[in-house]
Design brief:
By secondary structure, the protein is mainly alpha-helical. It has one domain. It contains 6 helices and 2 strands. The protein has a two-stranded antiparallel ribbon. Helix 2 packs antiparallel against helix 3, helix 3 packs across helix 5 and helix 4 runs antiparallel to helix 5. It is globular and about 50 Å long.
């Protein structure tokens, strides 16, 4: 149970976010990475990498928001805007640097997927998950209290 307590500590999310960002960079640097797609019988193929880009940046935003909230589970508006800017810049640089990797290229739709995933992850995590469920409904305190009492 001490491991669970250590994972739930908010300060650890700094390392989770940095590790996730590093993983994004490592995967983006793999040359000639195949593009996953679904090929319906009569339609055009559907590229799944746009969904993957969205989800990867959604998770990154989730980790960053958990890391950046203060003890009152709030983020100042200027910090929120800075986080958005840095997340979008990271997504752009991630796509742009792929022009230097053999078999990879810059794709504007991938960048848009990165941006939408990051912004959606921020809004979902901060406004729904933290502010609605944790602060307003106070569910986190009871769940976390039960988990920590068991430790």
């Amino acid at each position: 149970m001490k491991i669970l307590h250590a994972i739930l500590v908010r300060s650890n999310y700094r390392y989770f976010a940095m590790g996730w960002a590093l993983l994004i960079i490592i995967i983006s640097t793999i040359p000639n990475l195949p593009q996953p797609e679904i090929k319906p019988e009569k339609d055009y193929p559907i590229r799944l990498d746009y969904f993957f880009h969205f989800m990867v940046y959604f998770v990154l935003a989730f980790l960053v928001i958990i890391w950046q909230v203060n003890d009152q589970i709030k983020i100042r508006p200027c910090r929120f805007i800075i986080i958005i800017f840095i997340g979008l810049l990271f997504g752009f640089i991630d796509e742009w640097h792929q022009m230097l990797i053999p078999g990879r290229r810059y794709n504007t739709v991938d960048f848009v997927s990165n941006a939408l995933g990051f912004i959606s992850g921020m809004v979902f995590t901060y406004h729904f998950l933290l502010q609605f469920l944790v602060v307003r409904k106070n569910k986190f305190k009871t769940i976390a209290g039960q988990l920590f009492r068991a430790c």
